[in-house]
Amino acid sequence: MRKIPISLPGIALVAYLAIILLTHVSANAEAVHSEKLNASEIEFHVSNHGTIAKDEQADYPDWDGFKFPADSAYPLVYIGGLWLRAIVDGESRVAISGSGTEFAVGPYSHEPVEDSSIFKVYRIAEGGESDSGWINWPSNWGAPTDEYGEPLLTGSQSLWAVFNDNAPVFHTQRGGSTDPLGAEVQVYAYDFVGGDFDNMVFVDFKIINKSEDDWTDFIASVYLDPDIGFYSDDLCGTDSAMSMAYCYSLTDPLAFPPDYYPVVGMAAVRTPTFGTSLPPLIACNAMVNTYYSTSVEMTEDLMMGLQDNGTPFINPETGEETRFPFNGNPINGSGWLDSDKGDRRIMLSTWPFNIASGDTTLFRIAIFAADGETRGDALSRLFDVAGTALDFGTSDTTGLEVIENVEDGSIHSIEFEPVEHLWFSGLDWGGEAFNGGIGWAGDLWGSSLERNNNFNIEIEFSPEGGQDAYRFAENVGGYSFVDIVTVPFECRKKSTGEILNVIFIDGNSSGEWEAVSDSSESHEYILITSSEMSDAQYTEYGTAVLPHDAGNLDLMYVVSLLEREGERIGMREGQVLSIETSTNSPETSVDTLDFGEVVVGSERSLTAHFASGYKYEKSGSFAIDSLDVFHVGSEKITLPPGDRERFNVIFTPPDTGQFCARLMLRLNEFDLIAKELVLVGYGSPWSLKGDINLDGVLELRDITLFIRYLYYYEVNLSAGTDPDLDNSGIVDLTDLVMLINRIFLLEEP
């Protein structure tokens, strides 16, 4: 609350002002200090005596310490603070902070000092290693350090301070005034730049029981007093699933520019019950027109999610008691919503737990803001930011792992035999392999099959005759069945050898299937079904219109091939293209994808999965530092919460030898590289006799090199090169003649 309501009686008004001014003055007598984070779009203050979002260097009532944007004059939070409560020897003890505080600066116990300003808030930032914060970083008091003993910078800027409640003289607040708990609190706040991070800050409260007593039913709470523009027209809400409380304005805030509707909230990112079966919070409270606590009992009630009179909140939608008031959806207007505008405070309280003497616990929160042209836009954005804050604050960039050998129907491998005959690449439509030319049919137009219904197949090429296929040609509304044609291959189920039904999309309307060139106007697709070849399928396939009816057909794979430029070998009898979804290896978490040996000029595709440990959806993009050797099937990926999503990487060695690269996934929400993966592969020579320059093609240059090797001794053959074409054990003119015949007469190698 920024201004005192004029409806307060005069005596109460004077008393309230006296409390604020006296506690503020007495606190400042002990070298109270605050510092700010402002690298992101938020300016946020942290003090050395328990308050947050309060500028301790400013005078009342202008101590607002949370602004959004950071360089603006738009405060969204007036003040905030840490509250602690525990049962000691059967009695309640509390320590609270806000406009006044019951915390003293410095560690729990320390030598007397002449100048308590040494217990200030220490600040470090990127590029500021020569600043006093870096030089005087108080690691001896508990300020965090990295593995080298240097100040720990988390994000772009970090703040650290230590305070305690061990001074009875400070336990004078109306909502407190108990004996001290004996707590030391080390506060560590930090911000990041980029993505959703621009809209949030993190605060870690490391709470240590320095007393000789055990604490029973300990609760830590953080409260904020948001003011969205004018303080008296605010509303608030809570979300138990997100451990979140937030505040917004009933009307368009007149204190802000047009089309700027700000909202603010906070969430418990990590609580002392993290990793246990206990809930993270006992309550997210919404304090309605409650300016401050007037008793220990009232403090405990508020921390436990009760109203200021000690009665529980009743959800009018269900008639049930709740510690998470106003838990409806303000974006679509459903559920129980706050409607009686006024001054609001919000509070997060940890689940009660016990802390033994000498033990430590951590309470981490994220405070965030968002804006939009409307209240709904701003709130929707706020919930997105909250999801990012919860995920990062819980798992940072460790929420992803890469899993190999997941059998979910994804393509694990594609092999072509003999490899030296490879005459095509994939004509890209977004598939999983061969430059996107081969993939799951559901990714193209849809399928009635789930991906995990796919099975291993092989396509055996036969230029002189193959199997019948359903030919579809372009018609009004899509592609319609035209006739049955023979395609130059047979597609078989690998486990049984049964021939499968295939559909041929005649994109060029030529009447026959052919691997197309880059100059072709349209793709030629082969759609491979899961059904065995029979006349009984004619009705189902023959009446379909694609892509409209693809979702009703049992389509497994799509194959679209592009004839390699300058290819001399071409399609030949007995060549086999295998598509496999199964693997004989167990699922494994990996940091490296190893492609093994791949013949120069050919390619191998590997499919792996990102397993997301995040609670909310993430999206990102890939980058590879060696794109001419490795590339991903799709540059973008969306990761469903708590689930897996596949990705595909292709290795095409341009030469012999080992190749390495880094695959990096940058998550949009974090604007950080969240995962790096090492890619390794080895380019091996072609086993094509006579291929002197090892490019996978027999050509005139091979004849030239052969002559220079045979007669002029000018060529040193690479490992794996075999010029003995007739297997006589002697390289002579006969081998040269055989090479010429193979190149010009296309004799079988």
Offer a concise description of the structure.
By secondary structure, the protein is mainly β. Helix content is 11%, strand content 37%.
Give an overview in words:
This protein is mainly beta. It has four domains: 10-398, no CATH class; 399-410 and 579-684, Immunoglobulins (Immunoglobulin-like), CATH 2.60.40; 419-574, no CATH class; 700-745, no CATH class. The strands form eight sheets. Strands 1, 2, 3, 4, 5, 6, 12, 16, 19 and 20 form a ten-stranded antiparallel beta sheet that branches. Strands 7, 8, 9, 10, 11, 13, 14, 15 and 21 form a nine-stranded antiparallel beta sheet that branches. It has a seven-stranded mixed beta sheet with strand order 25-33-31-30-27-28-32. Strand 13 and strand 14 (244-249) form a beta hairpin. The radius of gyration is 35 Å and the shape is elongated. The N and C termini lie far apart (87 Å). The model is unreliable at 1-28 (pLDDT under 50).
